[in-house]
Amino acid sequence: MAAKKPVKKAATKAAAKPVARTTAAKSTTKKPAVAKRTTKAATKVSATTAAATKRADKENEDPLQVPLFDSAGASQGQIQLPEHIFAEEPNAPVMHQAYVRQMANARQGTASTKRRGEVSGGGAKPYRQKGTGRARHGSIREPSMKGGGVVFGPHPRDYSQKMPKQMRRLALRSALSQKAIEGRVRVIDGFGFEEPRTKQAAELIEAIGFDDTTLIVLPAPSYVVSRSFENLKGSKIILARNLNIRDLFTHTYLLLQKDCLELLEDNFGRPESRSRSKAHANQASDADHEEVKEGAK
User: Fold this and answer.
1) Quick check: 107 and 156 in contact, CB under 8 A?
2) How many domains does the structure of the chain reveal?
3) What is the residue range of 134's domain?
4) How sure is the predictor about 282, in pLDDT bands with cuts at 50, 70 and 90?
5) 241: exposed, middle or buried (C-beta count within 10 Å: 0-12, 13-18, 19+)?
């Protein structure tokens, strides 16, 4: 027993030496990890500063200044959007309410099911009350039976929702302003299509730089333009007076004909802006009448 004790001590000493070496090796390998952490922190800082500079540049840009194109898709500089329409602070709750209202008003509400009393048949008791070993039933048109009535099923109803006119206009102005803030609005002088040509319409979309769904707004109906764009996937033609929140939400880009800007301001602007535009229109018409009278004299 006395001879075994030194052997154990030697074994413990021999086992202790490699542990010291491994700890030393670990201490030497940890040094590069510190350097990696510093480089990662430096890259994160540089990325955050780059993102901050991009945000500052976007904030300095005027969202009301949008590109202007001619009928061939060539750039013609920039144009100023109406401030009364595209400078509204986006109101998310009102936009959501307008979208839900439009989707609800599009529902037909014609789904219908028959109750127990409306299903034909089932007047007689299918079998006697007792002695069969089966569950008690009084009619084959019970909701639990095949071909029976439906409990709490849908019935024709009206899903339409009401919303004040000023709130609807506010929702449209908010959606248009959000499009302008995101830089997804373009203006075109007009469409020089002599006949319906889908290929020409596709080339125009590509020249302007649209790479996603596009909502094209016209001031008045045009058969040639509508036929040219209706076969293009992701593009939709709509009149300025029929502009709605759902189409603005479901299309990425907005292409406005130049003549639509005044119509948007007249139809969806605030009451003050609409009264001003009407006053300007009346003054212009009075001036035209006076010129006609002077010419007649």
Assistant:
1) no
2) 2
3) 108-158
4) low
5) middle
**Contact present, 241 and 262 (Cβ < 8 Å):** no
* pLDDT at site 19: 47
pTM: 0.69
222 and 258 part of one domain: yes
Question: Is residue 208 a part of any domain in this protein?
Answer: yes
**Is 54 a member of any domain?**
no
d(CA 254, CA 208): 11
Rounded CA separation 246/235 (Å): 14
Strand (E) or helix (H) holding 86: helix 83-86
Describe the crossing of helices 165-181 and 92-105 by its angle, rounded to 10 degrees: 120
- CA–CA separation, 161 and 102 (whole Å): 8
Integer Cα distance of 126 and 254 in angstroms: 65
pLDDT in tens, 175-196: 999 999 999 999 999 998 989 9
Specify which residues 185 forms β-bridges with: 254
> Contact, 69 vs 188, CB < 8 A?
yes
Yes or no: say if 174 and 91 are a contact pair by the CB < 8 Å rule.
yes
Place of tokens 């109406």: 82
Pair (170, 148) in one structural domain: no
Residue 24 DSSP SS3: helix
pLDDT reported for residue 271: 77
Query: CA of 176: how far to CAs of 103, 180, 253, 277, in Å?
Result: 19, 6, 11, 19
In the chain, the N- to C-terminal Cα span, in Å, equals 141
> 145 and 269 share a domain?
no
Write the pLDDT tens digit of every residue in 99-119: 999 999 999 999 999 999 999
**Residue showing tokens 């002599």:** 194
